[in-house]
Amino acid sequence: MSKFQRFLLKRLAISVLLTLIAVSVIFVVLRLLPGSPFEALVTSGNLNQEQIDEIRAMYGLDQSIWAQYVNYLGSLLTFQFGYSILRSQPVWDVLEPRLINSLILLVPALVTTAILSSVLGMYAGWNRGSRLEKFSIVSTTLLRSTPVFITAIFFIIVFAYNLEIVPALGMRSIRATPDGYIETFASLDFLHHYILPFTVAVLYYSGDFLLLARNGVVEKRGSEFLKLHRAKGLSEMEQLARAGRNSMLPILTYFTLRLGMIFQGLILLEVVFSWPGIGRELVLAIQQQDYPLVQAAVFIMALAVIIANLAADVLYAYFDPTVSTNGGGSA
Amino acid sequence: MSTETKPKAELYERIDSLWTTVRDQFAFLRGDPLAFGGMLVVGAFVFLGLFGPFLAPHDPIEHTVRGDGGSVLRLAAPSADAFFGTTAYGKDVLSQFLAGARPTLIVGLFGGLGTGALGFTVGVVSGYYGGWVDELLMRLTDLTFSLPFMPMALLLLTFMTPNIWLITAIIAAFLWKMPARVVRSEVLSVRERTFVKSARASGASDLRTMLYHVAPNVLPIGFLYTAYGVAWAIAAQASLAFLGFGDPTMTSWGRMLRQVFASGNMRVAWWWVLPPAIGIAAITTSVFLIGRAYEEVINPEIQTDQ
Lengths: 331, 306
Fold this sequence. Notes:
The structure holds 2 protein chains of 2 kinds. Chain A is an all-alpha fold. In chain A, 75% of the residues lie in helices and 1% in strands. Chain B has helices at residues 5-31, 33-55, 93-129, 131-146, 149-159, 164-175, 177-191, 194-201, 206-242, 253-262, 270-298. Chains A and B meet through helix 1, helix 6, helix 7, helix 9 and helix 12 of A and helix 4, helix 5, helix 7, helix 9 and helix 11 of B.
């Protein structure tokens, strides 16, 4: 086995272990929660003891905690998340469309911001000390340090309430009753609702990419290999392209990490814009104590982070062999 | 010099040189207009956090603003009765704004310090010892990386009644991973330097080497990430409060924003939105701007001005 393969195998094993620990923590935390969603049903509804027992059995709550744990692990492995208590629907049927609503907002936003702000950052780094550089650093620092819901609130007030160009809430207008994903997303109405949250997401994430790209180029600028290129007579832009290419690796790894953190980072964005995504659903499910829904949503978010971390480490080790592949792997 | 006084003299010397460094940093920050502006904002914010509740003309929750006719002023625009206007419940926005700075300061300060201290310790120990200690600690940071912060914090805050110290603890428990990794990688390079090796060779204990030879050299990075920790903690606290998971007994800026948002009055009551929103944005940005300027001292390669 090559060194890289050994590293890969070890990293994979660690990821599996981390997943196991993460889902166990979720399980324990949820079991420690006081009260149960059924209490509301029992006190408000006209259920008799027999019906209550039946419902408890249906959700496996009458079994021992260990049996519940084993069932829970098994169900996660097969993506069978059980039944949502309050929506009387299989959990996956509730989450799937919301997951897609989240992805359709966040992935294009992340890709856009990664490309635009990296290019801008490289250009700013090349023109060090320029007004453009200073302006881009200050504005992106403002955008990335301000919590995203505050930026969103400002944008809603300006563009939705005062200028009235775009709607402030939701994904489609209330009267729209689209059928299927294509009808949902391929429409002007959707685009109209999309543009504001998309812009806020792009701006929120722009800072980190811009600074990474800028710092990369600034550090490369004084290095020997660029002196060689200059001596060879390459134009400024060609030199920048080479310096930029050499700062791609941190940007690429950062992009992967961000992709993994995407859902949790934008829970707030979805809440502010009433975007029917997985983050907003999680907040609602927690408020309503819908355990099966909560544990599935948190599981999906944790899994995304773990897979992205793994991918980032492997990418780094693969593209930059000088990184120790036998150490922590994630230094 | 007797063996008694030597460590003492050495200590004074260290404190002296530390003080000089601190003074130099301040001088530097004064020279950077952005960082200087940031420091002014932070200073104003600390003042508000300490004295805001006393300056507030009314009780932020109990008091109800009444107009000339004795009727409660609800959603009133700024006027002589209430300089920042009133909320939908007839409360004084200015008083809420002044009182709301305190929880933000507490969480920011202690969350940031906790994040920095925990991360710094883990980073130094992990990097210094290496081997299985390193492996164990780094897997622990991986674990906090894999548990998504927001959902986990929401979960924990549903089953424990949110209070400001619990929120601070949760934030520090999740955020220490950042400084831990950066400090560790710094320690890895410091560890190989000659003065550390010679200290080890001359028989200094691990603890002593870590405290006197390794830690001071990675301290700047530790400070920097403590500053960032402050900004992260403030942002996290505001976000949690906005989602409805804040300390229910305290008025905070995040909670003000939640109330104006949840009551559906965001469209009209700009005077209720702007003070807390601008407050949070200004303080987090200021801390980051100071951090950036400081980062350039530590890493001159990326300086803005050549």
